[in-house]
Specification:
This protein is mainly alpha-helical. Among the domains are: about 100 residues, no CATH class; about 100 residues, Leucine-rich Repeat Variant, CATH 1.25.10.10. It is about 70% helix and about 0% strand. The chain contains 21 helices and no strands. Helix 5 packs parallel to helix 7, helix 9 runs parallel beside helix 11 and helix 15 packs parallel to helix 17. The radius of gyration is 28 Å and the shape is elongated.
Amino acid sequence: MRYGLRVNGYWLSVVIGLIICFTSAAFCEDIEMRTQSIVRKNIALLKDKKYEHDAIVNLTAIGAPAVPSLTEVVNNPKESISQRTTVIDILADIKSPMATESLSQSLKDPSLKIRRASAKALGSISDRKAIEPLKGALTDLDSQTRYLASRSLQQIKDPALNDTFMKLLDDQDIRIRMLAIDGLGDIKEARAVEKLSRFSDDYNDEVRLRLAIALGKIRTKAAIPALNKLLEDRNINVRKEALKALGEVKDPSSIPYLIKIAEMDSKDLRYAATMALGEIGASEVVPPLKKLLRDEAIDVRVAAMKSLAKIGSAEFAKDFELLLNDESMRVRRQAQEALTALRGNQPSN
């Protein structure tokens, strides 16, 4: 496409121009004028289906310098809804905070499509300045706009959103409740554990799964009762995430639960429990981990070696040497790596 070629050639002149800019302000001004000319031409081509895709690519490649002209389109009610939503999508891909103010204003646009696109785009940009406008969008009458605003807030990951996420835990929309769980986990809000823990009985498997992941991120002993409850969940993926989370919490009180699960029939659960024992790393985990070196499942034997290697005691060398003759190449390779790591950690004489 002719304008695409002009954009590519333009960037070569920019590189040269940046060098000349130190001595020639006029040249810099010329570069800016040429940039805006190309931006305007590509914006005009968005209306032509034949060139629309190339224009989108070009505008996205130009990036931040295109934002002022693109936001003019967003805020122009005379432009078609289709044109404005396309431009909002471009701004989302550019991810420049310069677009935050314009997109925040669009959250109140009469058009449902504009509000939804703006709420989504603000999450891609993840600018803290969008927090208050997005919180305002949580009262939108459209459930999808509210969901997209919630998701964008979750993407921003700001600790100041604690109270907002706590309120969203009570939202009628299950998608928003799940985003609130994710958000509280992302900001590691320990004060939310008590309220989060009530979701350990939720009817929805995905909610309980996200709860386990969030509690693992928060990493507080207060989460242990809820995680222990999730260890008995009907969904094996929830139980696996709960095991992983207990490893993240690293509390020795979980060791008896983990040892019990490491003896279960499910190799997936034995593997997860083995890895969690390694994360805790207390002396009490050594005997069960040594026993798991002889587990029938290859993944579990490998996990037991990795967990013992984390603890890093020279006494494990003999155990690892025995596995150099294991029938599995993966186990033999891991045994060699574990031995190498142990020897590397030993103090030289």
